Amino acid sequence: MKHHYKRTGFTLAEVLITLGIIGVVAAIIIPTLVTKITNKGYVEKLKKNYAIIQDATNMIVAEKGDPSQWEWSVYNSGDYVANDSIVESYKKYLNVVDTCPATVDTRFTKKCVLSRSEYSYLNGSKENVVDYSKVWGMYHCNYILMLADGSTIGIRFKGGRCGRFWGTPDITFTIDINGKAKPNKIGRDIFYVYMLQTDHGKIKPYTNEIFPGTVDNVNTCSPDSTGQSCAYRVLTEGKMNY
After folding, report:
1. Would 2 be classed as within a structural domain?
2. What is the rounded CA–CA span in Å between residue 123 and residue 126?
3. What is the DSSP string of 68-83?
4. C-alpha to C-alpha distance for 169 and 204, rounded to whole angstroms
5. 23-58: per-residue pLDDT in tens?
6. Domain span including residue 162
7. 177 assigned to some structural domain
8. Which end of the chain has fewer beta carbons closer than 10 Å to its terminal beta carbon, N or C?
9. Does residue 242 lie in a domain region?
10. What is the pLDDT of residues 147-186, one digit of tens each?
């Protein structure tokens, strides 16, 4: 007795349709997945940089005492040795491979940073992102420390060689977690943290408060904003979901 078996399989049309569906799904899912992985990397690098700045500050406090007792340069005094000394202390406790001095033209020093047109806010705008007349002028008057892991830390004092930055913390740290690598965007790979002389060496993410005399940059971490407060959002929430 002969048995007849029905031949099973996919036709070419069915295979092509299936591949097409897979391609559409992949086109939707893969970019989202890549973004999530990339953002997770940004978060971890920010956490790392935040931690090493705090650790270095703790060591300086152990060495020099409470920041309220540190020697700080006074604006317009012509003597900036005190600020220089604080930076030297940070250099001692961070894995620094190169530096650039704090000058008006630091942002043009190609060795340490990029040209002004290569930085942007979180919303993509480049307007005034490196304008030294603005509170958060990119790297203006920052002592720039290039670290061995490829990140860059800028240190700017409220009062120093380039003037007095009203409405800013005593020290602002500009963290570029991947140095000159893209996207070079505030709130994505560039963040701000700070220290006040009265906070006993506590490094805080910018910003959950309004500093007297400055523009309100609180809650500026959404895709259509400038991104200045993203350090606070990321370090508080532990993720980058914007």
Report:
1. no
2. 9
3. GGS--PPTTSS--HHH
4. 10
5. 777 777 776 766 788 899 999 999 999 999 999 999
6. 12-237
7. yes
8. N
9. no
10. 999 999 999 998 877 778 778 899 999 999 999 999 999 9
